[in-house]
Write a structure and sequence with these properties.
Shape of chain A: globular
Helix content of chain A: 40-55%
Main location (chains A, B): cytoplasm
Pfam family, one (chains A, B): FUR
GO molecular function, one term (chains A, B): DNA-binding transcription factor activity
Strand order of the largest sheet of chain A: 1-3-2
CATH class of the largest domain in chain A: Mainly Alpha
InterPro entries (chains A, B): FUR, Fur_C, WH-like_DNA-bd_sf, WH_DNA-bd_sf
CATH architecture of the largest domain in chain A: Orthogonal Bundle
GO cellular component, one term (chains A, B): cytosol
Oligomer: homodimer
CATH superfamily of the largest domain in chain A: Winged helix-like DNA-binding domain superfamily/Winged helix DNA-binding domain
Chain lengths: ~160, ~160
DNA sequence: CAAGAGTTGGTAATGATTGTCATAATCTAT
DNA sequence: ATAGATTATGACAATCATTACCAACTCTTG
């Protein structure tokens, strides 16, 4: 069984969570899973462009719909980049995670965020607020993109 | 000295941090300070609309420029709401803060975020990433907007 | 095959934000 | 105070991600 076949199998299984199975949804989900392994978070636009380049002409509307449905179903994490664009990441498990994301290449590193979860839970208890949710994102430059990795060092 | 006069005085002083003094910048900054006391975070669009309603016709471009300059100068915090719109909040001090924001009315509560700062600093040290920055936002429903405050309780 | 529900994808609309540039205001040096 | 240089303003157009719309298409079911 090749890596590609494994991806397709996973995608095929997951697509049924969204409703009717369609080739387009499988393509989008498969591409999202690939992107997760390679680049971390991806935007709907870039994922669409990637599909077009790969001769998989899925409509932009369908890409947006599928990614939104995945996020709604809890199968994808969503963050916003510095321009406000939404970035998606496939989430194999069902727990909510936090990531350290490279601003240069988009690669993401899942974090152990127990300390933050505890802090947020404490705030929720003591503030008088209800339905408290938290957004925690770390961004930085990963070792591969850093100054000593053939980039463009300053100074 | 009235409250209005105090606001104007503060705004006048702060405007000089952005470069040349102009009445428009003073108006925008004053409105931002007022908004901070009343509503917490505000968007550029709503701030602009508010100025028009108050017969202070400052151009939308100028509102955007001034708010961006304030954020750049560290005199305003910026977050994104659920639609990706940028929300600004005047920051009297110079330290970076985190807030618990009510999704209903926009009121914000500054948080003691030492635990998060420490956690983020630790990640920065151990991850190999450089230029690590963090975004931490808590959202919820404040006591005034909660189910027992005349809102629309569910269930 | 026919009907019906759900899906697709091209296109248009939306809405925040940014770019442009002629005009106007502000600062500086005299 | 005034001229000159620099900077800011604001109306408008452009950009861009995202959403809405809708006619054509695809399954499933009888």
């Amino acid at each position: 069984m090749t890596a590609s076949t494994r991806l397709q199998t996973t995608a095929t299984q997951e697509v049924h969570l969204l409703g009717r199975f369609t080739p387009q949804r499988a393509i989008v989900l498969e591409a999202l899973i690939e992107a997760e392994e390679e680049d971390g978070f991806v935007s709907a636009q870039s994922l669409h462009a990637r599909l077009l380049s790969a001769d998989l002409p899925v409509g932009l509307s369908t890409v947006y719909r599928t990614l939104s449905a995945l996020a709604e179903a809890g199968r994808a994490d969503v963050v916003r980049d510095m321009h406000g664009e939404r970035l998606f990441r496939y989430r194999p498990g069902s727990d909510h995670r936090h990531y350290l994301i490279c601003t240069e290449c988009g690669v993401s590193l899942p974090l152990d965020a127990v300390a933050v979860e505890k802090w947020a839970a404490g705030i929720a208890r003591t503030s008088g607020f209800t339905a408290v949710r938290h957004t925690v994102e770390l961004t930085g430059i990963c070792p591969d993109c850093g100054p000593s990795a053939g980039g463009s060092p300053q100074g």
